[in-house]
Amino acid sequence: MPPAGSLTDEQLRFFDTNGYLVLESFSSAEEVKAMRDRMTELVDGFDGASAAIFSTKDHRHAKNDFFFKSAENISFFFEEKAFGDDGCLKQAKELSINKVGHALHELDPVFKKFSFSANISSLFSSLSYKRPAVIQSMYIFKQPGIGGEVVPHQDNTFLYTEPPSCTGLWLALEDANKTNGCLWAIPGSHKNGIIRRMIRDENGTHFDNPLPTFDQKDFVPLEVKSGDLVVIHGDLVHQSFENLSPVSRHALSLHVIDTEECYKGKIHLSHSMEIS
Ligand SMILES: O=C(O)CCC(=O)C(=O)O
Question: What Pfam families does the annotation carry (predicted)?
Answer without folding.
Answer: PhyH (PF05721)
